[in-house]
């Protein structure tokens, strides 16, 4: 039985049904829109394209994580709602809160992020998304305690990490609110949506003609261009090798468990476990004890950053 046609037909349909709970996302500005690049969000809303099946499958991983967490929170007897929609009283601005906990001392918002590998610190987009939700919730409930956290879930590794300590921050909310208004203006044809470059530009489908990505043309000596080309090629090979290494590593550890030493043919295989240890949450320290934070800062040595890759225009031309 060939399952490929089933995947190709069913995954887009499943994704459409799951997204239906969020309403027509082209008709309002949501929290993930506000946290993202305005130009990219504008183009996604104006010219929506269905992502590839592989991307939709990755999105489904997020829904799977939320489904699992729902079972866990229910088993724990927690009092909460899921996918809570908060709407602005006058403007087409909304947000959907993954989990809203009702605690004796107030409300707690949880934004879930499904990841492959838990980062050391939350990404700024995650924090912006959460801050926007906290701000919208504050508009709805002007009184009472409101807090929030980002829950990063790595289903492959079976790891969960809560980045906590967030409270509504009026200054951040006003900044995000102005971004939302800018997007509304862009969608109403009053201004052009601003590009906002970030690490995610590498994954952006609208990179090819993005003004923020425009580079001045500088002719290089032939030998320097050759070295740059070689560097870009090796870097691409390295990225592919690292991706494969990560999945092979997981397969091996799934077999050996956290502790193993053994020789197999010409290979010595050894696995050990580094126990979890406490570390300082710099973002929380800065938020709770700003004076202490400035006292413990130390200078970081600078270095030269080199980035060489095929231009987005070149990639588009090759793909065409
Ligand atoms: S390339 Fe970066 S700055 Fe340009 S639209 Fe995409 S995300 Fe925005």
Automatic annotation (TrEMBL):
Alphabetized UniProt keyword annotations = Coiled coil
Q: Which Gene3D superfamilies match?
A: 3.90.320.10
Q: Does the keyword Coiled coil apply?
A: yes
Name the domain of life this protein comes from. Answer: Bacteria
Indicate the segments forming the PD-(D/E)XK endonuclease-like domain, all copies: 67-211
Among its keywords, does the record have Coiled coil?
yes
- Coiled-coil blocks: 224-258
Stated name of the protein: PD-(D/E)XK endonuclease-like domain-containing protein
Its lineage opens with: Bacteria, Pseudomonadati, Thermodesulfobacteriota, Desulfuromonadia, Geobacterales
